Amino acid sequence: MIPDERPSRDAARAFVVVDWGTSSFRGWLISADGRVMAESRGGEGMLHCLDSGFAPVLGDHVARLGAEAEVPVLICGMAGARQGWAEAPYLGTPTRLDSLHEGAIRVDAPGDIRILPGIAQALPERPDVMRGEETQLLGATEPGFTGLVCIPGTHSKWIRIEAGHIVEFSTYMTGELFSVISRHSILAHAIDGSEPQAADGRPFREGLSTALAAPTALTASLFRLRASQLLGFEQRADGAARLSGLLIGAEIADAVHRHGPMQSLWLIATGALGRLYEAALTGQGLDVTTVDAEQASRRGLCKAAARIWRARH
Amino acid sequence: MIPDERPSRDAARAFVVVDWGTSSFRGWLISADGRVMAESRGGEGMLHCLDSGFAPVLGDHVARLGAEAEVPVLICGMAGARQGWAEAPYLGTPTRLDSLHEGAIRVDAPGDIRILPGIAQALPERPDVMRGEETQLLGATEPGFTGLVCIPGTHSKWIRIEAGHIVEFSTYMTGELFSVISRHSILAHAIDGSEPQAADGRPFREGLSTALAAPTALTASLFRLRASQLLGFEQRADGAARLSGLLIGAEIADAVHRHGPMQSLWLIATGALGRLYEAALTGQGLDVTTVDAEQASRRGLCKAAARIWRARH
């Protein structure tokens, strides 16, 4: 038997971290000295677990990770929502990233299972919430960081961080609007398939330019996408990329307008969507630093876990 | 037997006019001297007829109207789309409203059945199309009319008319976005039922103000509607009215920005939706003249029919 296959004395202080979103589960076994020992991922997100329960899903993944059954577990994401496993109440802005762990709640289950809190901007004029992105921000930034961060996705976030505090943020329904408009509106006739991550080609760049040039006209530009095809100016194969350009452009136009002149921006993203945002943002003259989204989650969880359990040992 | 129940000599020159949309059929029997003799309406819009065929549906309504089987019929709306009964090719802008009838096509069926054309704005930078609204514009305006007209609905239209010509128009997906967002997005949790015509109360007015004050921020304002309820600032019962305010506000903000300073506006609308737009537009300091949408369709059809068949007799 090789040492990695059974808990060693060191592994007794190993822990598991989990990014548990609406539709996905990603878990890692982390050694006491911070190394990634194993990874386990699946589609058992919060929506799945509303039926099956959360504890059995976690148990399966812990076993797959080769960890002992009662290994300490730290979770971020929608598992901590009111409708999730156990509610981890929001921390209000401004919030220090390096004290997120203080808001973690313990799940009423055997072992030591904790869920990190989300962040709420509890302002009547600009109410907003996040769950999971705060952990990515912790993972992607150094202590005392100041800057603007964009985390694209179903619900894209733009976050202003000052001296290591989340001070203000906005959520854009960009990814979700792509999905519902391309599947459920008249634009379903103008979009071939429902590929959410369109290529950075001419239709994407034109959609982006249109949205940036006329940032108040989104709901008209959407109809024009259909009209353009009816009148033979564009092909259906270009519809998804144009829609993506229009929605990402509307997001960037508003965010840049809101945050004023800026030179640099941090992007926490991955894959094709990350490349679309990189292209769009550098096209606006911004100096973009991209951090991988999954690494950011894992590192943020590990930083918080170290603060929770290092204190214990 | 009373005279109205069988065709008289006068009724031999009567005609039927039909507003045949995507999801509804509204037909009227019009006497030779222009009086409305009977009305027949149903849910057999274009989508229904793709399966059942158009001719049998029209035949049923003609019988219900008490007209002879081969009465002349003039149709406007989606029945003339490429995927409709018979394509009535678009006329391009600029188009004289009082020559719409010249673009009518005859359906390959017994009798004299014609369909009015839609209008296309075949500009690569601002492609747009309408089918049905052109007939409402003919019905709602006097010869030589100049002004800006708004026709709210699933696909809201803003049309600039100069000296009786449609010179330019824009379509906003306002009504359709209300429907798909309230039913298929995360906002389904924030909207009670899917009542498309919300009351002109505080949540509507606040949504409107938000959109008018931050007209580039629509996709963020949509998420805030959800966040506002999660954080206890608003109740679910107010969600539909706020969403309606946000979407109508986004439309008006862009249209007013686009068309520049204006004092007056014509509104072709009906019922609760018409009242919401009246409130929103008069709140912007505009002098609004409202014309009933259904009367506008019928009158436009009658004007065009008179030009077609008066020439014949």
Report what the structure shows.
2 copies of one chain form a homodimer. Chain A is an alpha/beta fold. Chain A is built from 9 helices and 15 strands. Chain A has helices spanning 46-52, 54-64, 133-140, 174-184, 202-213, 218-230, 239-259, 271-282, 293-312, and strands at residues 15-20, 25-30, 36-42, 73-76, 91-92, 95-96, 105-106, 113-115, 119-121, 128-130, 147-151, 156-162, 165-172, 264-269, 287-292. In chain A, the strands form 3 sheets. Chain A has a 6-stranded mixed beta sheet, with helices on both faces. In chain A, strands 6-13-12-11-14-15 form a 6-stranded mixed beta sheet, sandwiched between helices. In chain A, a hairpin with a 6-residue loop joins strand 7 and strand 8 (113-115). In chain A, helix 3 packs across helix 9 (293-312), helix 4 (174-184) runs antiparallel to helix 7 and helix 5 runs parallel beside helix 7 (239-259). The longest helix of chain A is centred in the C-terminal third of the chain and has 21 residues, at 239-259. Chain A is globular, with a radius of gyration of 21 Å.
